[in-house]
Design a protein that fits this description.
Layout: H1 3-8, E1 12-15, E2 20-24, H2 35-41, E3 46-49, H3 71-84, E4 90-95, H4 97-108, E5 113-119, H5 138-150, H6 152-164, H7 170-181, H8 185-196, E6 211-217, H9 224-233, E7 237-245, H10 249-252, H11 254-276
Parallel strand pairs: 2-3, 2-4, 4-5, 5-6, 6-7
Antiparallel strand pairs: 1-3
Pfam families: Abhydrolase_6
Domain AB hydrolase-1: 21-259
Protein name: Alpha/beta fold hydrolase
Length: 281
């Protein structure tokens, strides 16, 4: 076990199960956003939580602007954690950009993962007419980056509200804004640029790991057309439309999130057993 890697990414392992689940946060968040979901599943699974370098209680000294200039650097961190824990066929649950990070990790080392579960994923946030609608024009995203530079605290408040999309739980909006504010603004800005200007559409067809796409209702960041695009282009994928609104169902609607994850994994286990016995699935 590589303790240096585990310390770098502030890795925590809890739970009682034999099957491992890795939870990856979205942009600007740390592992604490998974508390409700992870706790609910910890009796059935071994839970692995981590922070991206530059977020939460990770080792800030390990932040390298070149390494983290693309999502590949974050994907390599995930692979480092898998290697350090000697994981095989773990379930990867990623939120937002965390979904794409896990997907990229699976392309180079698919044996680490049994399934990918994506909450509010998007392979590209930019509109690319006439064939693709990601939800944003380039000018909008540049404006977001500019606001981060000029008024980071104000940006954090506005962006948290946008993510949750008028949730009835204002305390979650405050929690999100606090998490954004706890990140170094320079690191947050680079991560934002890497996240919102990434285009992983061409990578979708290469994925070999079965995937679950969780599409929230009224999600401004990842609209329903994006979920449909992923479903059409991601091999061996399942699309579930959630009742949960906004972009952070693991925080705003943890009960539904747990229910959908649990159901998917039980179905996958059952189908796997049927296939092992040579029975029709």
């Amino acid at each position: 076990m590589n303790q240096k890697i585990l310390s770098r990414n502030n890795v925590k392992v809890i739970g009682n199960g034999t099957q491992s689940i890795i939870f990856a946060p979205g942009f600007g968040c740390d592992q604490s956003v998974w508390t409700s979901v992870a706790t609910a599943l910890s009796d059935e699974y071994q839970i692995i939580l981590f922070d991206y370098v530059g977020s939460g209680n990770s080792d800030l000294r390990a932040y390298d602007m070149n390494r983290y200039s693309t999502l590949d650097g974050y994907a390599q961190d995930v692979l480092d954690v898998c290697r350090a824990l000697d994981l095989k066929e773990a379930v990867f649950v990623g939120h937002s950009v965390g979904s794409m990070i896990g997907m990229l990790a699976s392309l180079s080392h698919p044996h680490y993962f049994s399934h990918l579960i994506m909450l509010g994923p998007s392979p590209c946030y930019l509109n690319d007419p006439p064939d693709y609608y990601g939800g944003f024009e380039k000018e909008q995203l540049l404006g977001l980056i500019e606001m981060m530079e000029k008024n980071y605290i104000g940006w954090a408040t506005v962006f948290a509200a946008t993510l949750l999309n008028n949730t009835n739980r204002p305390e979650i909006k405050s929690e999100l804004a606090e998490r954004f504010c706890s990140t170094d603004p320079i690191i947050a800005r680079q991560f934002a640029e890497v996240t919102f200007f990434a285009d992983n559409r061409k990578d979708l067809a290469k994925v070999t790991v079965p995937s679950l796409i969780l599409q929230c209702s009224d999600d401004i960041i990842a609209p329903s057309v994006v979920g449909q695009y992923l479903y059409q282009h991601l091999p061996d994928s399942t699309l579930v439309k959630m009742v949960a609104t906004g972009h952070c169902p693991h925080m705003s609607h943890p009960e539904e999130t747990v229910q959908v994850i649990r159901h998917f994994l039980k179905e996958a286990t059952f189908n796997g057993r049927q296939a092992d016995r040579g029975e029709p699935v």
